[in-house]
């Protein structure tokens, strides 16, 4: 089921929706047969923009989590595996950085990143990755430590396998399950942070049909065109509800 | 305990110094063209001429070496002068203090409402498994955790303010204007706290001391209030750091949604227009508050749970 939803979202993300096409005669039109979710202040079709937003909101969220999980797992594997006094010091240092990053509120980091780099898509995604790798590093570290002493790892070692080989072939598959479990919750968190930053005007900028940015734009017209608020809001809630239960902030 | 508090208190200025250097220097190093953004914010001119840019850079002191700029700012900051806004030229300090007061009111009200709803619900939910409270924590809680503030806020405005017309949609100052923002802000912490309290109350109910209290013949209410409740709050308190931080993050969105002149909307605006003095002052205040709150929650947690001492 989860794969089906992901595949459907991928198809929607790849299709070029007419997000910029304006129907100037029918601005702020309520939902009708021609425009299923109505039109916005420029006469753009809201349904097309919501579907076009999948690429931005869902796509960027997924992309940021993909980068985060790779970085986090590599760091976690390394710090979990390292042995010897000097290596332990490094591992402890890295893990205290992880603890610090995990404790920071995502939106605050987003604000700081936007303050440093200026508002925009790149700073917003950077903020999410800066935050995102840490929980994965913590998880992978714990799991690696817990399987490091297993007999099959020792067996591989005594056969002369190198650390990279052991981590890739023996440890990684063993820890993949819980990491995969964490993935959806983190994806929801990343997506909501991105949409939140865009909502504040610090992430993806209009006219890009990112859902948070659409919500912010639509709020101006909430009194005359409530569908401009309802449509992107429903899209955000639908995807986060489908992806997993609850968010981790 | 006093030693720990003093040590941690001494560390705060140090962390603040590092943080202030970061938020001061990095935007100037990496932030692209600040003067152009400021001109755009002041006059809406999209392509200002180079002479005007150079004049503005000199006026704002942006043409001086970074180290001099930072030291000048720092020496002002320790004397309580946080500089003037790039865009409005108003003194930043009073502005930030006033905004922080508004934000603090909002956050405290939000947390108070969240806890007032979550603690009784969590305790009762654990006391009656499968009851109304228990199911509410499961269903409403799951929903509240999945729906972000930037959706809750606009949707509440739409339902309560636009269609029903019961409450004002935006503004700050009257109690009626505070209802929707406080409810929006309380949504997420309430759901989180209810779950934490319920989980801990379950453990506390199974504890021998609870059996003893029941065996003594105490009323159910008294057992829950006096013996179970204190044991049920440690997780909420231990999580209070991230919790308050989350409220802080939520508050930014809530302030922007409801047009509340707090620190969050001040910061979001200032970042958007690259008004660096306001950004620096605001972020330093936010970080200082976060540090103090983290320490305070740790102290409270130790006071409440003797095993942590």
From TrEMBL, chain A:
Looking up InterPro entries in the UniProt record yields: BP-dependent_transpt_permease, MetI-like, MetI-like_sf
Superkingdom to which the source organism belongs: Bacteria
What sections of the protein cross the membrane? 56-82, 89-115, 121-140, 183-204, 224-244
Q: How does it sit in the membrane?
A: Multi-pass membrane protein
The ABC transmembrane type-1 domain extends over 54-248
Q: Name one Pfam family in it.
A: BPD_transp_1
Q: Main location per UniProt?
A: membrane
Annotated keywords: Cell membrane, Membrane, Transmembrane, Transmembrane helix, Transport
Where in or outside the cell it occurs: the entry states: Cell membrane
Q: Which CDD domains match?
A: TM_PBP2
Q: Report the sequence similarity comment from the record.
A: Belongs to the binding-protein-dependent transport system permease family.
Annotated PANTHER family:
D,D-DIPEPTIDE TRANSPORT SYSTEM PERMEASE PROTEIN DDPC-RELATED, OLIGOPEPTIDE TRANSPORT SYSTEM PERMEASE PROTEIN APPC
The name on file for this protein is ABC transporter permease
**What organism is the protein native to?**
Actinomycetospora aurantiaca
Instruction: Provide the organism lineage as a comma list.
Output: Bacteria, Bacillati, Actinomycetota, Actinomycetes, Pseudonocardiales
TrEMBL record, chain B:
Going by the UniProt record, its keywords in alphabetical order are:
Cell membrane, Membrane, Transmembrane, Transmembrane helix, Transport
> Where would you find the membrane-spanning parts of this chain?
140-166, 178-197, 240-260, 280-301
The cellular location(s) given in this protein's UniProt record come to: Cell membrane
Primary residence: membrane
Instruction: Read off the PROSITE patterns from this record.
Output: ABC_TM1 (PS50928)
Q: How does it sit in the membrane?
A: Multi-pass membrane protein
**Domain ABC transmembrane type-1 per the UniProt entry, residue ranges:** 100-297
- UniProt similarity note: Belongs to the binding-protein-dependent transport system permease family.
What protein name is recorded for this chain?
ABC transporter permease
Q: Which organism is it from?
A: Actinomycetospora aurantiaca
Organism lineage string: Bacteria, Bacillati, Actinomycetota, Actinomycetes, Pseudonocardiales
């Amino acid at each position: 089921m989860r794969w089906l939803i992901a595949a459907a979202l991928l198809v929607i993300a790849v299709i070029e929706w007419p997000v910029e096409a304006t129907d100037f005669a029918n601005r702020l039109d309520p939902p009708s047969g021609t425009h299923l979710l109505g039109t916005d202040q420029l006469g753009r079709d809201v349904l097309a923009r919501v579907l076009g937003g999948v690429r931005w909101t869902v796509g960027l969220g997924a992309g940021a989590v993909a980068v985060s999980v790779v970085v986090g797992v590599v760091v976690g594997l390394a710090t979990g595996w390292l042995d010897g006094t000097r290596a332990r010091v490094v591992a402890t240092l890295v893990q205290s950085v992880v603890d610090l990053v995990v404790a920071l509120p995502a939106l605050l980091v987003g604000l700081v990143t936007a303050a440093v780099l200026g508002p925009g898509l790149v700073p917003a995604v950077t903020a999410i990755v800066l935050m995102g790798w840490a929980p994965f590093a913590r998880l992978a570290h714990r799991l690696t430590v817990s399987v490091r002493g297993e007999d099959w790892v020792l067996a591989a070692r005594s056969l002369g396998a190198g650390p990279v080989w052991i981590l890739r072939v023996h440890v990684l598959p063993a820890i993949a399950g819980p990491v995969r479990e964490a993935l959806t919750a983190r994806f929801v968190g990343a997506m909501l942070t991105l949409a939140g930053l865009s909502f504040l005007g610090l992430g993806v900028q209009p006219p890009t049909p990112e859902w948070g940015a659409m919500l912010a734009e639509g709020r101006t017209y909430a009194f005359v065109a409530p569908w401009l608020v309802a449509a992107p809001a429903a899209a955000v809630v639908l995807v986060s509800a489908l992806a997993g239960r609850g968010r981790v902030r | 305990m006093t030693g720990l508090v003093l040590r941690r208190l001494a560390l705060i200025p140090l962390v603040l110094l590092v943080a202030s250097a970061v938020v001061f220097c990095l935007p100037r190093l990496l932030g692209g063209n600040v003067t152009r953004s400021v001109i755009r914010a002041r006059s809406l001119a999209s392509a200002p001429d180079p002479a005007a840019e150079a004049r503005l850079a000199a006026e704002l002191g942006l043409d001086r070496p970074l180290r001099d700029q930072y030291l000048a700012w720092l020496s002002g900051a320790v004397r309580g002068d946080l500089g003037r806004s790039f865009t409005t030229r108003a003194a930043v300090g009073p502005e930030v203090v006033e905004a922080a007061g508004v934000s603090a009111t909002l956050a405290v009200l939000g947390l108070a409402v969240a806890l007032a709803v979550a603690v009784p619900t969590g305790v009762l939910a654990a006391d009656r498994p499968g009851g109304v409270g228990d199911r509410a924590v499961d269903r409403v809680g799951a929903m509240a955790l999945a729906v972000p503030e930037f959706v809750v806020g606009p949707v509440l405005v739409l339902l309560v303010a636009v269609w029903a017309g019961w409450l004002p949609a935006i503004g700050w100052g009257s109690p009626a204007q505070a209802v929707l923002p406080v409810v929006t802000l309380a949504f997420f912490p309430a759901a989180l706290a209810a779950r934490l309290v319920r989980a801990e109350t379950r453990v506390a109910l199974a504890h021998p001391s609870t059996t003893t209290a029941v065996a003594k013949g105490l009323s159910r209410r008294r057992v829950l209030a006096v013996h179970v409740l204190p044991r049920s709050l440690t997780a909420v308190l231990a999580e209070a750091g991230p919790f308050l931080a989350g409220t802080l993050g939520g508050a930014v969105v809530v302030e922007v949604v409801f047009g509340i002149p707090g620190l969050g909307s001040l910061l979001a605006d200032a970042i958007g227009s690259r008004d660096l003095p306001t950004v620096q002052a605001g972020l330093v205040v936010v970080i200082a508050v976060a540090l103090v709150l983290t320490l305070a929650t740790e102290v409270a947690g130790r006071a409440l749970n003797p095993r942590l001492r």
